[in-house]
Amino acid sequence: MHPRFQVPAHLADDLAADPRPVLLVDDLVDTRWTLTVAGRLLRKAGATRVLPFALAQQG
Protein backbone atom coordinates (compact mmCIF):
# COMPACT_ATOMS: atom_id res chain seq x y z
CA MET A 1 0.00 0.00 0.00
CA HIS A 2 1.21 3.53 -0.70
CA PRO A 3 3.04 4.94 2.36
CA ARG A 4 0.68 7.89 2.71
CA PHE A 5 -2.12 5.38 3.32
CA GLN A 6 -0.39 3.70 6.24
CA VAL A 7 -0.63 4.57 9.90
CA PRO A 8 2.92 5.16 11.18
CA ALA A 9 4.03 2.47 13.63
CA HIS A 10 4.56 4.93 16.48
CA LEU A 11 1.00 6.27 16.11
CA ALA A 12 -0.48 2.76 15.91
CA ASP A 13 1.46 1.83 19.07
CA ASP A 14 0.19 4.94 20.87
CA LEU A 15 -3.41 4.24 19.85
CA ALA A 16 -3.14 0.60 20.91
CA ALA A 17 -1.83 1.62 24.33
CA ASP A 18 -4.26 4.51 24.82
CA PRO A 19 -7.25 4.53 22.41
CA ARG A 20 -8.53 8.05 21.83
CA PRO A 21 -10.15 10.26 19.17
CA VAL A 22 -8.01 11.54 16.30
CA LEU A 23 -8.42 14.84 14.46
CA LEU A 24 -7.73 14.14 10.78
CA VAL A 25 -6.83 17.30 8.83
CA ASP A 26 -6.71 17.53 5.03
CA ASP A 27 -5.76 20.69 3.17
CA LEU A 28 -8.03 20.13 0.14
CA VAL A 29 -10.81 17.63 -0.48
CA ASP A 30 -12.46 16.73 -3.75
CA THR A 31 -14.13 13.33 -3.51
CA ARG A 32 -13.37 12.80 0.23
CA TRP A 33 -11.87 9.42 -0.64
CA THR A 34 -8.55 10.21 1.08
CA LEU A 35 -10.38 11.12 4.30
CA THR A 36 -12.44 7.93 4.06
CA VAL A 37 -9.44 5.65 3.59
CA ALA A 38 -7.30 7.41 6.20
CA GLY A 39 -10.17 7.42 8.69
CA ARG A 40 -10.75 3.71 8.24
CA LEU A 41 -7.07 2.94 8.78
CA LEU A 42 -6.97 5.10 11.91
CA ARG A 43 -10.03 3.33 13.32
CA LYS A 44 -8.44 -0.05 12.60
CA ALA A 45 -5.29 1.17 14.38
CA GLY A 46 -7.28 1.94 17.53
CA ALA A 47 -8.71 5.44 17.26
CA THR A 48 -12.00 5.61 19.15
CA ARG A 49 -13.31 8.24 16.74
CA VAL A 50 -11.93 10.00 13.69
CA LEU A 51 -12.93 13.63 13.34
CA PRO A 52 -12.28 14.76 9.74
CA PHE A 53 -11.55 18.42 9.05
CA ALA A 54 -10.92 19.93 5.62
CA LEU A 55 -9.41 23.36 5.09
CA ALA A 56 -10.96 23.70 1.61
CA GLN A 57 -13.26 21.82 -0.76
CA GLN A 58 -12.75 21.68 -4.50
CA GLY A 59 -15.65 21.41 -6.90
Automatic annotation (TrEMBL):
Gene3D superfamilies linked to this entry = 3.40.50.2020
Q: Give the top-rank taxon of the lineage listed in the UniProt record for this protein.
A: Bacteria
Q: What InterPro entries does the entry give? A: PRTase-like, PRTase_dom
Q: Spell out the protein name for this chain.
A: Recombinase RecQ
Q: What is the lineage of its organism?
A: Bacteria, Bacillati, Actinomycetota, Actinomycetes, Micrococcales
